[in-house]
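assembly run, all chains below
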Amino acid sequence: MVSVLLLVGILVAVFVGYNVGGATTGPAFGPAVGADAISKTAAGVLMTVFFFVGAWTIGRRVVDTLGRELVRDPGVFTLEASIGVLFFIGAALFVGNFFGVPASTSMTAVGSIAGLGLAAGELNVAVMGEIAIWWLVSPFIGFWVSLIIGRYFYSSLNRRLAMTRSEGPLYRIDRSRWVPVPVPTDTTNRRELGGVAMVIVIGCLMAFSSGTSNIANAVAPLVGSGELAMNPAIIIGCAAVGIGTVTIARRTLETMGNDLTELPLTAAIVTATVSASLVIFLSAIGIPASFVIIATMCIIGLGWGRATRPITVADAVRGEESVPISVDALTADAEGETLPPIGDEDPERIPSASDLFNPATTARVVLMQNIVPVIATGGAYVTFRFVPIFGL
Amino acid sequence: MVSRVLVPMEDSEMSDRALEYALEVYPNAEITVLHVVGEPSQMWGYATGLALADDLEQAAAEHAKPIFDRAREIVADADGDAELETHIELGNPARAIINRANDYETVVIGTHSGSVADLVFVGNVAEKVVRSAPVPVVVVR
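ok done. output:
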């Protein structure tokens, strides 16, 4: 009987891992696949490899936090309770993917486990507080860093990274040697090659960061229950992620439903670098990070910084910037037009990019991203508190 | 008699119906189709993509083109000789529509867009327009 339960637990964990693989390949390798740098299968394979490296090296610290520290007595992770927690995480992922409302898997996982701990009276409030504080601080760090980049460095970065794909395939496979090696074709220029390499490297970095923070969501309850040792758990979890990356991830990469693909390549690279670095840092100190919220704040920061940028004299002289944004009061008047008397002017303004970043509206989006984790926390608490089948 | 009608449109069946209704009920009116680009999205990628574009106006026009093409199709199907004005606004749809509505006598709008993600991140635009628009609003379902 116990072994059947363990099997069910592992199956639910595999389901969670499978969904994680599907959901995270899109953001990580969307830009690379979109730029025709690699195939979807190659993206899936790279995703799996780097996810595993991240999970094996740093990811175990987060597993420890979730499975052993967040609840004072890991004994609350009976197999039944572990399956319940994993069920909440899997359901949240499913809802997020199905309705197009991205939900942070890590927040949902912490919420479900906290719900369990609260119901059992074993929640470690100090650990929970530490996690919550980082959840508040890390998105703001991402926001400010991206804002500075967007405001002051984006144009020069964009010039440097601008990637135009030439006609024809990027590389051919040279089979005349011992090992088949990819060799750039004649139509591929060096700059292009550098750009492509960069997009792939960024994808791998994202995959690594995803491994560091997401492995815990799939296996932490089982490791906490003591039914599964750390290393086999990580291997099983990564295998499940691998299945997801080469199956359902094809769809998430294809549908372009992913909001990140709306970003220009340079922006995708900046966002990915900043948010992946933050996620890796948090995982290294054992904090489960919420990639969705950090990435969203990075995107908002980058866009807003760019929309409100000052225009340097050099740029204006070179004519590379569109001037009206900061000096619309002067350029809004077409030449030769007679100006209306003061006070009689048409109140209609020229639409500017800063209209896209209304504070109340952006706040709503970030708040709404927390809906699924909040529901999962409440649901987990009520379920574990009042449904008497979890052996608490 | 109503002579200036604003029809805010997006890519949804409801806004198609709003335009059809406006054409039917106000056959002699000058109809302006308004499309708001850069509305809130799951991870704000859509709006930021626009903000980062080299030429904001051109990028906005590209996003709005399919909507306006569809609107012209509907006009052609309905009768064919109504003049159609088009206008693009940026940012929060409800706010943009309400600001714009001042120049018109009536707003004709579809009830909702239909996707759960839109409802969560953008909210019900028709409801907000009804509540705050300075002119009468017709909600089409």
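Strands of chain A lie at 171-174, 181-184.

Residues 321-337, 343-348 of chain A have pLDDT under 50 and may be disordered.

not gonna interpret more than that til we talk
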